[in-house]
């Protein structure tokens, strides 16, 4: 079955056919599963997503020698056979032709209705980042506001909202980024973060990576070290991972 | 009703929460003293205490739905929902939710706006709370209450971090109890 995946936000919209083979990233930890497919949404049956999940290896700064056993256990818990991840992917709803024809929208609101799956989602991130000296969790408006604060509270970090223009009341710095047509702007309060802070950036989904790269630039401009970007879902064909440059990306589910 | 009048009188957490909120004068326009909760989110202990106070209140009330109003309600609601074992339901501006929605209009100073909710998110008979950072006129919260009641949910309470001492002289909003942690501050010496 030929499916098209369109970008629903950000720039460089690329029309792709999902039958194109995908090359996993060089440092993917887990073997590639069978290719995923996205079924058209039907009210009679839940959509099935056959998903791979993979992660880049944590950069050395996050692991110490004494952490190696714990880290291996953390990676093992994110093994593709982890039942938590299959459950999470199964409760994400795919809505065709939203916001426009041809786009398959990954709707996380159904994940938020499943108490255990939502808790597991947060736990998977918290397990990865607790004890790693993360001082800032930056969440991207608006769905990043749903996942970011629970993670921040659990790991003892500040939560910093990255917002659309003219929402934040205090003095801001802003970063422009490209959309399919035109540009948008992301803002952060001056003084929310300090040079030397270690940050995560959280959003529900990464597509082309335009929004995440804008957030990385905003934080790096004020001397923050962005340790990792973390999303629930990745659309790998849109190559967002590459757009993030040296900043690692961690995702729970990969929707191909 | 204010938390201080409902079991939390003298609770030092409330003062710390109030102190952590920044007042930004004349935003978004002249004369408005904007209550900025982003500074509360930077204070891990005060942010955690905010969530804990709501969790302690709603944990044993049989609440199965926490509805959060976009966007600042999203910063508080999910943590509360996770801790009390409830669903989180985002109430959003128009055209953001991808599935089938119901909508409620509400009044602004000039014109109207609209709040939407996914129809399948909440079932008849569910007990719900509505969360937002601040209540002013109560227009947004009223729209939220109407949305939930239209699908047959029972709105147990509306909860906000900040609220005016008298919301038009009433401790309830459209007949629903209103639970507020702190009052707005007029001036801020820090910024």
UniProtKB/TrEMBL annotation, chain A:
This entry's Enzyme Commission designation comes to: 2.4.2.7
Q: Note the Pfam families from the entry.
A: Pribosyltran
GO molecular function terms listed in the Swiss-Prot or TrEMBL record: adenine phosphoribosyltransferase activity
Q: In which pathway does it act?
A: Purine metabolism; AMP biosynthesis via salvage pathway; AMP from adenine: step 1/1
Q: Which InterPro entries match?
A: Ade_phspho_trans, Adenine_PRTase, PRTase-like, PRTase_dom
Name the UniProt key words of this record, in alphabetical order: Cytoplasm, Glycosyltransferase, Purine salvage, Transferase
- Compartments, record wording: Cytoplasm
Phosphoribosyltransferase domain mapped to chain residues? 123-243
Query: What are the recorded Gene Ontology BP terms?
Result: adenine salvage; AMP salvage; purine ribonucleoside salvage
Q: Does the keyword Glycosyltransferase apply?
A: yes
Catalytic activity field:
AMP + diphosphate = 5-phospho-alpha-D-ribose 1-diphosphate + adenine
The yes or no answer to whether the keyword Nucleotide-binding is present is no
Xref: SUPFAM superfamilies = PRTase-like
GO cellular component terms given for this protein:
cytosol
Known NCBIfam families for this protein?
A: apt, PRK02304.1-3, PRK02304.1-5
- What family is this? Belongs to the purine/pyrimidine phosphoribosyltransferase family.
Q: How does it assemble?
A: Homodimer.
Q: What is this protein called?
A: adenine phosphoribosyltransferase
> Origin organism of this chain?
Theobroma cacao
UniProtKB/TrEMBL annotation, chain B:
Quote the subcellular location field of this record.
Cytoplasm
Domain (Phosphoribosyltransferase) spans 52-163
Q: In which pathway does it act?
A: Purine metabolism; AMP biosynthesis via salvage pathway; AMP from adenine: step 1/1
Q: Which GO terms describe its biological process?
A: adenine salvage; AMP salvage; purine ribonucleoside salvage
* Enzyme Commission code(s) on record: 2.4.2.7
A Gene Ontology term for the protein's cellular component? cytoplasm
Q: Which UniProt keywords apply?
A: Cytoplasm, Glycosyltransferase, Purine salvage, Transferase
Record field: catalytic activity: AMP + diphosphate = 5-phospho-alpha-D-ribose 1-diphosphate + adenine
Could you name the domain of life of the organism this protein comes from? Eukaryota
Q: Which Pfam families match?
A: Pribosyltran
The GO terms this record gives for MF are: adenine phosphoribosyltransferase activity
Q: Where is the major localization of this protein?
A: cytoplasm
Q: Which family does it belong to?
A: Belongs to the purine/pyrimidine phosphoribosyltransferase family.
Q: How does it assemble?
A: Homodimer.
Q: Which HAMAP family match?
A: Aden_phosphoribosyltr (MF_00004)
* Name of protein: adenine phosphoribosyltransferase
The organism of origin for this protein: Theobroma cacao (Cacao)
